[in-house]
Amino acid sequence: IVGGGFIGLEAAVALADMWGVKVSVVEMMDQILPGVLSHSLALMAAHDCQAHKVDVHVSEKVLKIEGTDGAVSAVVTDKRRIPAQMVIFAAGFTPNGGLAKEAGLEVAPFGAIVVDEHMRTSDPAIYAGGDCVCIKNIITGKPGYLPLGSMANRQGRVIGTNLAGGDATFPGYVGSWAVKLFDMAFCGVGLTVERARKEGYDALSVGVEQLDHAHFYPEKSMMTLELVVDKPSRRVLGLQGACADPDSLKARIDAVAAALQYSKPTVDDISNLEVAYAPPFASAMDVVNAVANVADNALDGRFTPITGDTFMELWKNRDKNNVFFIDARPAAAGRAVQEKHPDWHAIPLEEIAARANEVPKDRPVAIICNTGLRAYDSLLILARSGVKELVNASGGMQSVIKMGLSM
Questions:
Q1: Which of 16, 87, 241, 254 is 20 to 30 A (C-alpha) from 9?
Q2: Please, what sign has the CA dihedral across residues 388, 336, 310, 45?
Q3: What is the pTM of this model?
Q4: Alpha-carbon distance 383 to 361, whole Å?
Q5: What is the mean pLDDT of residues 171-186?
């Protein structure tokens, strides 16, 4: 499959999961689901595919298709040759507004037909909607493009109302999306941290790992949420997530999507966002509130978050970077790793205050735990003890495991 976007991955899941076909996905960008998932969450999506025997090749460009007698035999990229009996192109497309342009309508530089909030083209007697139109991105305020069936249906109602003499409007989009892979579902709204920075925002992202239901409820899944904020204004720019329970994840994303569509919510707004609570549905402090609280802590300078993959990169290069690593999980988990790796220091949260003298004050310190909470508390204790250069892994080992990374 050429292309690691929504359609390409859904095709991969259908072929591999439903019919047992051996599938390879080739994506020319440096991650799958580019533009809609952060790099860290994309690693989780790739791991979900690879765990189900779908090969994922990123940063690769297809050079040619080989075959004989009208039958394909292989795909050749700039890095390898992949035997294949069928090739699906799902590399995306750009809208073709050529006919509209020839008819005298205004067309955006990227090919989509320009419409106003009533879905009228530059000719007020002509309306357009769906995958061919350019519409406003509500977050950036700039013209954008989002070819989704849900978008087209809502635009169609606006057009129909106006053709019948009404006065309906379509304000634009915030970019809500969802995709189900194998064991995991992924969902998001707004901008990733990478996209936000390209748009000129001084953006920060923070992540959490928390159960989607109350911890004592028998049925629950660990949810990943990553919130993107503009540091100077504290404005929320986007939210992405991953969870084995797609309905739980979509509920959180939809709540923030509604806030983004009709206002410019800040971290404080999401921290206090009212969501329904009962143990079969959520924790008393919901995960969507928790990720905003983490963002608040980061913005106020209480800690410096790093992603799980960044933490593991530090660990991989520990001989060069002089980082002191702390595992703040309960004693048994940390000591099991320490027995294999002497550079791994098992100092549980319960012991961190009493053992603070073991932590050097002249070296950078990186802390990890299971989900990030114990590491954060440990970081605060060490900061009060005079340790200056501290980072902790947002999402902890849960995040690392979802990415398929190992010690």
A1: 254
A2: negative
A3: 0.94
A4: 10
A5: 97
